[in-house]
């Protein structure tokens, strides 16, 4: 079977598996849904009231029927009602998502703008001082957790420059792009730091692979300039692993940077999940986790498609 | 032993191994209670004391010695990291081997289940597990272990599939070796090299994930010292007591760096194709 058709065929299967996992794991949480919803007041219910509530929410039915109903609801965009917000889960998620998307895009732009030139430079100066310096920096970047970078940035801003990054109320980009950018740039740098380090490492090793290929030697020997050999002949082929890595990292970032959003007090998807977990808002946890996994799967699928477009050997089913 | 020698000769491997050795020493000393002070004792008059000869890395808001707490915290992080990676390695290896060996339907089922687990960002899957079981050391171990299992299954399945086709496996089958013998002796032994690299790198991720979880307050619970928690607690004090942030941050970073450097060195040593490729 062709690689792409195979990939597209398993996609709904994996999605179904994810939905089962999310559904089952939420129901594994100790305590019943009615107590979770009403808190201590659940103790005041008579057995009859409890039973009618259970019938109302459908939790008196067998688990596979409950799952079926939940799944049918999913297709019509019904993820349930968030107890904390008193609104449909999907609406709450979609309200938070633009921030997470913007943050992920900004971080990726930073990572690619820093990582690709650094990686290519290191590869062309293989074993030279520039290569060594870049490798050490990339290694350090990859080993520094985002929360360390974030805290250092806040420390430098507040203690050294006496400026507190604007936190608290978030301004969307369509209201005031400048304020929006000033709120997102430091979190984006924080996330872009390790991301840039991975891009650097993968660009370097991909370029090294390509630069030792025969066709690059041919290009050199027919007199192509060094710049043309690097950017026109070698670079497009070195791009494939970079695209894969960036896509996967981007997919992770769309899941919300739980820790960085927490440090910079940004109301994105990551903070939403964390708060939902601590407030035991299970419909919201369920919805968020499903939404994040779906994003991640779609991005991965797109990465695979891009990969196939860049590499004819995969497109033609040579796997 | 040969591999330790090779690491010692590898420039970045040497640094990585040295860092791990120092951390192991600190963890063992901490576990036996050989710390400058009791990590839980509160020296009330010396609260937020700057680093000095008595308190090498200062004291926190409750007057507890940061050095002693860091030593104990390293031990805690290492126990969680090693235990969770052990779980992930064992589970992932068994799943990957069986998927490759049984093939067809079983391969499809097992690897799709792994794909489902991989569809969740690591920290999110860990959060979900913690939401179900409640935070604590055991939960952290289980959560991180489950999160990294699919990666090991994938690392094992690929090479196991190609080993399965090799002549020596056929030969072993013809002269009647049992399945278990072939799986452990012929397949598993040949997978030790890629697994070693993966284990070392997974230890770096596990340290990172553990620190992240306890930074969020969902990992090791107070009053037990933990690196992530110490860093998180330092946030509101960074202007008055920057050392409370500096030392845990450095300790977490260097620990991850140590495993990353060693992992890269091992990859260089064990896989000649990538010689000098890893930064």
TrEMBL record, chain A:
<feature type="transmembrane region" description="Helical">
    <location>
        <begin position="144"/>
        <end position="164"/>
    </location>
</feature>
<dbReference type="GO" id="GO:0005886">
    <property type="term" value="C:plasma membrane"/>
</dbReference>
<feature type="transmembrane region" description="Helical">
    <location>
        <begin position="103"/>
        <end position="123"/>
    </location>
</feature>
<dbReference type="Pfam" id="PF19300">
    <property type="entry name" value="BPD_transp_1_N"/>
</dbReference>
<keyword id="KW-0472">Membrane</keyword>
<feature type="transmembrane region" description="Helical">
    <location>
        <begin position="12"/>
        <end position="29"/>
    </location>
</feature>
<keyword id="KW-0813">Transport</keyword>
<protein>
    <submittedName>
        <fullName>ABC transporter permease</fullName>
    </submittedName>
</protein>
<dbReference type="GO" id="GO:0055085">
    <property type="term" value="P:transmembrane transport"/>
</dbReference>
<keyword id="KW-1133">Transmembrane helix</keyword>
<feature type="transmembrane region" description="Helical">
    <location>
        <begin position="184"/>
        <end position="202"/>
    </location>
</feature>
<dbReference type="InterPro" id="IPR045621">
    <property type="entry name" value="BPD_transp_1_N"/>
</dbReference>
<feature type="transmembrane region" description="Helical">
    <location>
        <begin position="250"/>
        <end position="269"/>
    </location>
</feature>
<dbReference type="InterPro" id="IPR000515">
    <property type="entry name" value="MetI-like"/>
</dbReference>
<dbReference type="Pfam" id="PF00528">
    <property type="entry name" value="BPD_transp_1"/>
</dbReference>
<keyword id="KW-0812">Transmembrane</keyword>
<feature type="transmembrane region" description="Helical">
    <location>
        <begin position="289"/>
        <end position="310"/>
    </location>
</feature>
<comment type="similarity">
    <text>Belongs to the binding-protein-dependent transport system permease family.</text>
</comment>
<dbReference type="InterPro" id="IPR035906">
    <property type="entry name" value="MetI-like_sf"/>
</dbReference>
<feature type="domain" description="ABC transmembrane type-1">
    <location>
        <begin position="97"/>
        <end position="303"/>
    </location>
</feature>
<keyword id="KW-1003">Cell membrane</keyword>
From TrEMBL, chain B:
<comment type="similarity">
    <text>Belongs to the binding-protein-dependent transport system permease family.</text>
</comment>
<protein>
    <submittedName>
        <fullName>ABC transporter permease</fullName>
    </submittedName>
</protein>
<dbReference type="GO" id="GO:0005886">
    <property type="term" value="C:plasma membrane"/>
</dbReference>
<keyword id="KW-0813">Transport</keyword>
<feature type="transmembrane region" description="Helical">
    <location>
        <begin position="113"/>
        <end position="132"/>
    </location>
</feature>
<keyword id="KW-0812">Transmembrane</keyword>
<keyword id="KW-0472">Membrane</keyword>
<dbReference type="InterPro" id="IPR050366">
    <property type="entry name" value="BP-dependent_transpt_permease"/>
</dbReference>
<feature type="transmembrane region" description="Helical">
    <location>
        <begin position="243"/>
        <end position="263"/>
    </location>
</feature>
<feature type="transmembrane region" description="Helical">
    <location>
        <begin position="187"/>
        <end position="208"/>
    </location>
</feature>
<dbReference type="Pfam" id="PF00528">
    <property type="entry name" value="BPD_transp_1"/>
</dbReference>
<keyword id="KW-1003">Cell membrane</keyword>
<dbReference type="GO" id="GO:0015031">
    <property type="term" value="P:protein transport"/>
</dbReference>
<dbReference type="InterPro" id="IPR000515">
    <property type="entry name" value="MetI-like"/>
</dbReference>
<feature type="transmembrane region" description="Helical">
    <location>
        <begin position="12"/>
        <end position="34"/>
    </location>
</feature>
<keyword id="KW-1133">Transmembrane helix</keyword>
<dbReference type="GO" id="GO:0055085">
    <property type="term" value="P:transmembrane transport"/>
</dbReference>
<feature type="transmembrane region" description="Helical">
    <location>
        <begin position="78"/>
        <end position="101"/>
    </location>
</feature>
<feature type="domain" description="ABC transmembrane type-1">
    <location>
        <begin position="74"/>
        <end position="263"/>
    </location>
</feature>
<dbReference type="InterPro" id="IPR035906">
    <property type="entry name" value="MetI-like_sf"/>
</dbReference>
<keyword id="KW-0571">Peptide transport</keyword>
<dbReference type="GO" id="GO:0015833">
    <property type="term" value="P:peptide transport"/>
</dbReference>
